[in-house]
């Protein structure tokens, strides 16, 4: 099992622990705002299971039906997580509306508040770890899980602050109002998560800085060629796919052109081991006199 799968599996255990603590906080206080916090943690657990399955599938080698690999499974997982977030937000809003119509007494007992604070601290530590390792591993699913946990931490802090204000002022309507605010925050994070994942599913180009490094490597290591044009890039999980046309002299031997291609590919792999390069060699009459000038 690779590091990504181990992180995803550990996220399930962390999510179950945090969920238990938040349910305890809700039961001991009767606060619908803390109910909303617990409902979001249910999504965290479901999402962690989805991330584990997606990371395992993404690590599978290419096969006959998927010759380019299974890396996009992580984007599908992130989209599913976004949908689960929307469902959780709807459940929170429904419970908040119920309490608006029939207010209930809340009690911020030390044990209840302590359980929620402990859950938030665990989420913050684990969320930061997922963000750091997910970016290092270039795993969209693990990064998405980390972002979701950090959103949960912000929601929890807001919930506790709002509940303290509700008790201090005696305004019981603040409890369901806080829950509504949490639901809207959850919806926003879900929308941003889905948006980022759709970009990967739609073969979004590599970041501008990555493309700049790719162009520089081609220009520097394509000695013997005339130019390179029609460069295209796309992301699929941790992999970056690169393809372009390389123009060489019409009378150049195939072996010489192949050596140039090998040299470029080695330079790109030195920059990023998770890169897949496809080069289409063309004779000089196909030159567009635009694109990448060979140094």
From TrEMBL:
GO BP of this protein: intracellular zinc ion homeostasis
TM region positions: 7-29, 41-61, 73-93, 113-131
Membrane topology term: Multi-pass membrane protein
A molecular function (GO) term: zinc efflux antiporter activity
Record domain Cation efflux protein transmembrane: where: 9-202
Location of this chain's protein in the cell: Membrane
A GO CC annotation given for this chain: plasma membrane
Signal peptide: none
Primary location group: membrane
Record keywords: Membrane, Transmembrane, Transmembrane helix, Transport
Keyword Phosphoprotein assigned: no
Cation efflux protein cytoplasmic domain span: 207-284
PANTHER family named in the record: MITOCHONDRIAL METAL TRANSPORTER 1-RELATED
Family the UniProt entry places it in: Belongs to the cation diffusion facilitator (CDF) transporter (TC 2.A.4) family.
Classification via NCBIfam families: CDF
Protein name: Cadmium transporter
Gene source species: Hansschlegelia plantiphila
């Amino acid at each position: 099992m690779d590091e990504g799968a181990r992180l995803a599996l550990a996220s399930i255990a962390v999510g179950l622990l945090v969920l238990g603590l938040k349910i305890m906080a809700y039961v001991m206080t009767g606060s619908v705002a803390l109910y909303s916090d617990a409902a979001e943690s249910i999504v965290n657990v479901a999402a962690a299971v989805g991330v584990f399955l997606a990371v395992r599938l993404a690590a599978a080698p290419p096969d006959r039906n998927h010759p380019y690999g299974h890396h996009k499974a992580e984007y599908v997982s992130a989209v599913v997580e976004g949908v689960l977030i929307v469902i959780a937000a709807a459940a929170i809003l429904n419970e908040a509306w119920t309490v608006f119509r029939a207010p209930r007494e809340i009690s911020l007992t030390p044990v209840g508040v302590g359980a929620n604070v402990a859950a938030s601290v665990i989420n913050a530590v684990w969320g930061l770890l997922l963000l750091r390792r997910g970016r290092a591993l270039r795993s969209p699913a693990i990064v998405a899980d980390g972002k979701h946990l950090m959103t949960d931490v912000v929601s929890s802090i807001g919930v506790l602050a709002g509940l303290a204000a509700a008790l201090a002022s005696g305004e019981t309507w603040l409890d369901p109002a806080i829950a509504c605010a949490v639901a809207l925050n959850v919806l926003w994070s879900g929308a941003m998560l889905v948006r980022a994942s759709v970009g990967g599913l739609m073969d979004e180009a590599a970041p501008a800085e990555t493309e700049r490094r790719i162009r520089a490597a081609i220009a520097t290591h394509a000695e013997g060629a005339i130019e390179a044009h029609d460069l295209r890039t796309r992301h699929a999980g941790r992999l970056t796919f690169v393809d372009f046309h390389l123009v060489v002299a019409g009378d150049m031997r195939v072996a010489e052109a192949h050596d140039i291609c090998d040299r470029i590919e080695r330079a790109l792999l030195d920059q990023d081991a998770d890169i897949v390069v496809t080069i289409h060699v063309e004779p000089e009459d196909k030159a567009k006199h635009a694109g990448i000038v060979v140094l």
